[in-house]
Amino acid sequence: TCGINFSKQQIKEILNFPIRYICYDNETTAQNQAKKLLDILSIFPGKTYNICLDSKDPGEASDKEIKKLRKLLQ
Q: Which long-range contacts (CB under 8 A, 24 or more apart) does 47-52 make?
Protein backbone atom coordinates (compact mmCIF):
# COMPACT_ATOMS: atom_id res chain seq x y z
CA THR A 1 0.00 0.00 0.00
CA CYS A 2 3.09 2.25 0.05
CA GLY A 3 2.57 3.36 3.63
CA ILE A 4 0.00 2.61 6.28
CA ASN A 5 -2.97 4.20 4.52
CA PHE A 6 -4.96 2.28 1.95
CA SER A 7 -7.67 3.09 -0.57
CA LYS A 8 -10.74 1.22 -1.78
CA GLN A 9 -8.94 0.63 -5.07
CA GLN A 10 -5.99 -0.94 -3.27
CA ILE A 11 -8.36 -3.20 -1.34
CA LYS A 12 -9.94 -4.31 -4.62
CA GLU A 13 -6.49 -5.13 -6.01
CA ILE A 14 -5.45 -7.03 -2.87
CA LEU A 15 -8.61 -9.13 -3.09
CA ASN A 16 -7.34 -10.61 -6.37
CA PHE A 17 -5.03 -12.80 -4.29
CA PRO A 18 -6.43 -15.79 -2.36
CA ILE A 19 -3.63 -15.60 0.22
CA ARG A 20 -2.65 -12.13 1.40
CA TYR A 21 0.13 -10.94 3.71
CA ILE A 22 0.20 -7.53 5.35
CA CYS A 23 3.58 -6.38 6.66
CA TYR A 24 3.61 -2.88 8.13
CA ASP A 25 6.14 -1.27 10.44
CA ASN A 26 6.42 -2.64 13.95
CA GLU A 27 4.95 0.41 15.70
CA THR A 28 1.55 0.87 17.30
CA THR A 29 0.06 3.20 14.67
CA ALA A 30 1.15 0.99 11.78
CA GLN A 31 -0.05 -2.20 13.48
CA ASN A 32 -3.42 -0.59 14.22
CA GLN A 33 -3.76 0.20 10.51
CA ALA A 34 -2.74 -3.35 9.63
CA LYS A 35 -5.50 -4.66 11.92
CA LYS A 36 -8.05 -2.37 10.23
CA LEU A 37 -7.01 -3.68 6.82
CA LEU A 38 -7.15 -7.26 8.08
CA ASP A 39 -10.65 -6.69 9.44
CA ILE A 40 -11.84 -5.31 6.11
CA LEU A 41 -10.30 -8.17 4.13
CA SER A 42 -11.55 -10.85 6.53
CA ILE A 43 -15.11 -10.70 5.20
CA PHE A 44 -13.97 -11.73 1.72
CA PRO A 45 -12.95 -15.20 0.50
CA GLY A 46 -9.32 -16.09 0.99
CA LYS A 47 -6.92 -15.78 3.89
CA THR A 48 -5.15 -12.68 5.13
CA TYR A 49 -2.23 -12.72 7.54
CA ASN A 50 -0.48 -9.98 9.44
CA ILE A 51 3.28 -10.30 9.60
CA CYS A 52 4.83 -8.36 12.45
CA LEU A 53 8.60 -8.40 12.27
CA ASP A 54 10.98 -7.97 15.19
CA SER A 55 12.65 -5.08 13.38
CA LYS A 56 11.02 -1.65 13.46
CA ASP A 57 10.69 -1.43 9.70
CA PRO A 58 10.50 -4.18 7.03
CA GLY A 59 13.37 -2.45 5.24
CA GLU A 60 15.53 -2.99 8.33
CA ALA A 61 14.66 -6.67 8.72
CA SER A 62 17.51 -9.00 9.56
CA ASP A 63 18.70 -11.66 7.15
CA LYS A 64 17.16 -14.25 9.47
CA GLU A 65 13.73 -12.57 9.26
CA ILE A 66 14.00 -12.23 5.48
CA LYS A 67 14.80 -15.94 5.16
CA LYS A 68 11.73 -16.80 7.27
CA LEU A 69 9.55 -14.56 5.09
CA ARG A 70 10.83 -16.11 1.89
CA LYS A 71 10.17 -19.59 3.23
CA LEU A 72 6.63 -18.57 4.21
CA LEU A 73 5.92 -17.15 0.75
CA GLN A 74 7.04 -20.24 -1.16
A: 47/18, 47/19, 47/20, 48/19, 48/20, 48/21, 48/22, 49/19, 49/20, 49/21, 49/22, 50/21, 50/22, 50/23, 51/21, 51/22, 51/23, 52/23, 52/26
Query: DSSP letter string over 32-54?
Result: HHHHHHHHHHTTSSSEEEE---S
Alpha-carbon distance 39 to 17, whole Å?
A: 16
22-43: per-residue pLDDT in tens? 999 999 999 999 999 999 999 9
User: Whole-prediction pTM value?
Assistant: 0.84
Give the type of residue at 59: G
